[in-house]
Every structure is written in structure tokens, then in C-alpha cells.
């Protein structure tokens, strides 16, 4: 069949010419401000600490602004036409898809929820015999295997139910959460899934599944082998739970393949976190289904549109771009966000705005989930001869299982190019960023696919400490790439393109935001207390240069946020969290990275908890910040909040009592006011709230002491 038209369309944003004009104008203003900072140095000699800190902050702000302009140079928007694809390609000619789902901790990532994610992918509107779902259990949990053994039984009823009733939300956990009652069949299935969850949760509480596995001799043998296993010391476990050539649903249609994988772990071997798990799945799948396309999903990211494979195929089956197309990245969209997204967990810039900017250069980066890969981009143009394609009716054969165990052993990668030249890349906690950078530098392209209906939905942390911890981990991983031989400023700009390199550099150096944010949240405020001006007077024409730089940056940021279907309240919370993250996640991440570079051990990869308490969820949905954790993050935030509140009060008093003081100190008073406004949830948590989410008293005391210490530093800098 011939296509009735192209499978997709693309258009460059009409704002691109305006962006470029603004880049030129803003660059001139920025250059003038930096020149002014160097020439005048205000009231300080060139060697003074305040002068040096302000200059360092301005240079870093200029660097981060400059690298970001690559993302504004040529943003594009795309549209797919999956119906044209179906008209042109017969179902039998559609390529097979291997789905990879990674989980690492059964206590923090509930196995029943992970199984629900897998079921949503198994229920794609796609030939089931062409789908293989591989689950990597890096936690080595027997309960996770139990959850998937039960999910395999449930799939026999769930998949035909979705198909026959036109169900779009095909994660059973989320579907049953959104419906009440319904037809008898719906009620029956809901009871079945609830029974599955209860069985798994009870086994998790007991820490034992010996009373729950009853499928047959093979499962009993697995139980025997599991005895004595610990999380970081066990052999490979491969279990084929469903096989499309043998298993069918209650209507007689074949079921997708479902394979459980727990790779070998030994205390003496580095397992490379999620990247290592994905590489193990890549090799295991090569021995079994060996599909030409691979979909990676986080364990909490379920399919929200069963037609997402067709959207991806609109690009992979386009002869004009398929030869060098590495992956099609869908945006991360999240469910359960409160009305105003108080923690900015939507991360709109990273997941929706920036990818459109990168898409006009060479393609978006890989963000770890919701991404369809071409297998040859990960394994090279041809598959290794030792891993030939296996027919689906042999995936459970003894030879294949033995081969799968071999490729998931701790020693398999030794002396190979896995993690360096092929597969998902090692060397960074941000393996997604590192992998995308390498693929683009090898000449591969990518596409940002953003259909009107979100293809995938994920969960977000619902307490502030988890959000900040997650972003700290990201910043450390990005620094690991930024300060390596693969630095985007050198490796990216030369191997890919100059603009692509700049766009990657902007994200790689995210942690450096901590320096200007910390300086501008403390230094001008301390100077304000002692009446020392750091910026031109309002009556000085040069004041308006700074005003333009500030207002133009914020207004453009707001307009881009609103254009991406954001709201003003969400934008306000987004810029507040940018400040909070700069003072905590990026600051502590920078310190952790520097300690690691000098050989001081630091914290490794931490799994973000997917378990949410009822009280915590209630606070989050009401838009109330949760500060209950005894976290050093909150000491940092509390200290800055107190310093700015005191400086704002002193500054107001000084402006009211001293003639001309407001003219000289307006810029610093304005900065204090902005920080105080952003810190209002902190003041509430420290002094006004009595609920369970208030800031611990000890954190408040430490914050007050740290603020007093900074005031003493300010006295030495500005008064002595």
C-alpha cells in the first residue's frame, strides 16, 4: 500500500527570527554590564573579595545565558499522522518492539505498581506477538518476581478487556483509580487486580514468597535458588513468564512476551547502576526477541496512549530519516501534580521547552524514559555474531536461557566496548544525558515527538526533600560529564555541531547555577545591612542597563513558559524552585562532586521513593510545602531566608530614615524583596505552622545560627 501523504510534518517556530534579534541586543547589553563591572568595580578595589565574587557570579550567569541561546536559535514543532502509517504498512510488516523497564528497590518502588506499568505497555494497540517486555530487577527481589508472575495471569483478562472496550488508560492501577463501579466485568477485574496488589504487599511485608509461588516446578526451582540471596550478591536469574508463541489470552489471541531479569551481582564488581541494567537487557533481548526497536520506561512511567508506537514509527519508517535516526523521545508528563505545581516537578523547561529547541539542531537528548531507540544505534550497525536473532518460539529454550545468563554475568563486559562505545554509556549518574550526547556526537539524530495526548505519564516526588535529593543526583551526574573528556564544550561542539555542543553544555553545567544564585541571595543583602551600594543608583542611567538585563530575562522566561501551556502561578513556583534548587541541590551536588574528585567517598545512586504517605499526599494536593525532614538542604534554605528577611527590614528602615539611601540601595532592596517573597513558605514552616510538615525546630535553630555567622562575615567585609 502507498502512503496517502507523509507520515509526519515539521515547522520552525515563527519566533526564531525574533529570538535571534533579541540574542544580539541582549548580548550587547550583557557585554556592557560585564565591562562596567570590570572597569568601575564600584566601591571596591580589584582585589577585594566582594568585587571578585560579584564578577564570578556575573561571568557564570553570562555563560549559562550564552549556552542557552542555542536552544532558542531554531525551535521546531512536529506532528505525526499514524493513520497514514496504518494505511501504508500492513500489521505483519510492523517491526517488533522490545520494552525495557528497570526497577531497583522493592520497598521504594512498589512491585505491583511496576507490574502495572508493564501491563500498560503489553496492552499497546500493536500486534501482541511483536511486543516483548523485559523487566530488570536490580533489587534482586523475589517479591518483584511474584508481582510479575501474578501480572502474567492478570494479563490474560486485562488485555482483551482493554481491546474490546476501547480503554485508553491501560495501566490497571491508574485505570481503577479513576473509575468507580461500572459494568460487572470492570468490577470483576478490579477485584482481581486488588487481590494481586494485596498478595504482593503481604509478601513484601513478610519478606518471603514461599507461600505465594504455586505455578509449577520451574517456579519452585527458582525459590530454592533464591534462598540465601542478598541484593548485591547473587547469580543471574532469567524467567520467561509469558511467551507469545505458547500463551494466549482468554479470547485466544497471543500474549506479548514477558521476561523477568535479575542480572548477576557481586560485591567486587561495579554494576554501573541503571546504565548497566539497560545494557544487560539489551544483550538479553538480543538473545531472545531481538526487536529492531527498543522502548525504555521508568518503572513508574505508564503508557497513557496505546498508539504511541505508531507515532514513533512515523519517523522510524520514513526512508528519508531512518538511516541515522537513533531515537524518538517523548516528553515526560506527570500525573497527580497539584494545581500550581509547588515543587516545579513538571520540569517544563527540561522536558518540553528545551527539547523543541534541540530538535531544530540535531534532536533532543535522551531523558531516561518514554524513548524508542533503534537497536542498531546502541549496538552498532550490525548485531554481534554471537547474538543472532532468535525465533520467538525458542526464547524459553535451555540454550537461550543459558546464553541470557551468560550475557548478564558480572564478567561479560570485561574487555568489551559496552558502556564506552556501544550501549548505554557509563561514567555518570546521568546515564541518559551521557548516552544521548555520545549518540549525537557519533552522527546519529533524534526526534522530539509531542502528540496532543501525552503518550506516557509518570509519578513525581511529593515532598520537598525528595525533589531536592533527586536534583542533586542529576547535578552530580551532569558534572561527571562536564568535567570529563566528553565535555560538551569540546567533545560536543567538535563531534556534533557548535550549537548542539552549547545546548548540551547548558545542561551539563547546571550545577554551576549554585554559585551566582548563592552569591546574589547573600552578598547584596549583607551589603544592604551595612549601607554599602553594589549597583548603580536609580538616578544613574547605568541602572537601567541592569534593569533591562533582569526584566528581559524574566519576561522572556515567562513568555516561553506560558507558550508551553504553563500558567503564571506555575511559572512563579518554577522560578522559586530554581532558586531553592540552586541553594541546595546544585550547591550540595557541586560540593559532593568536588569531594569525589579529590578522592573523598560520597553518596552513590539513590532511588527516588515512589511510596507516598496519605498525610504527605494531602499536604501536597493542598499546595502546602513539606519541610518535616531533618535535611541539611533546609538549613541552607532557612539561613538564606533569615538573612534576606533581616536585610529587607534593615533596608526599609534605612530607606525611610536616610535621605538618598533608597536611590543608592534600591537594587539591593529589590533583590531582598524578591528573595523574601520566594521564601514565604519557609517562614511559614519555621514560625507559623503546627502541622506535621513544619520545619523541625533543630533545623530552625541551626538556620538562625548560620544566619548570625553570615552577618558576622558581612560585618568583616563591609564595616571593618
UniProtKB/TrEMBL annotation:
TM stretches of this protein: 21-40, 52-71, 508-531, 543-564, 576-595, 633-653, 665-683, 695-718
Residues at the catalytic site: 138, 432
Positions that bind UDP-alpha-D-glucose: 109, 138
PANTHER family linked: X-BOX TRANSCRIPTION FACTOR-RELATED
Binding site for Mn(2+): 274, 298
An annotated GO cellular component: membrane
Pfam families: Cellulose_synt
Protein's UniProt name: Cellulose synthase-like protein G3
Annotated GO MF terms: cellulose synthase (UDP-forming) activity
GO biological process: cell wall organization; cellulose biosynthetic process
InterPro entries, A to Z: Cellulose_synth (IPR005150)
Entry keywords, A to Z: Cell wall biogenesis/degradation, Glycosyltransferase, Membrane, Transferase, Transmembrane, Transmembrane helix
Subcellular location: Endomembrane system
Source organism superkingdom: Eukaryota
Residues making up the signal peptide according to the UniProt record: none
Keyword field contains Ion transport: no
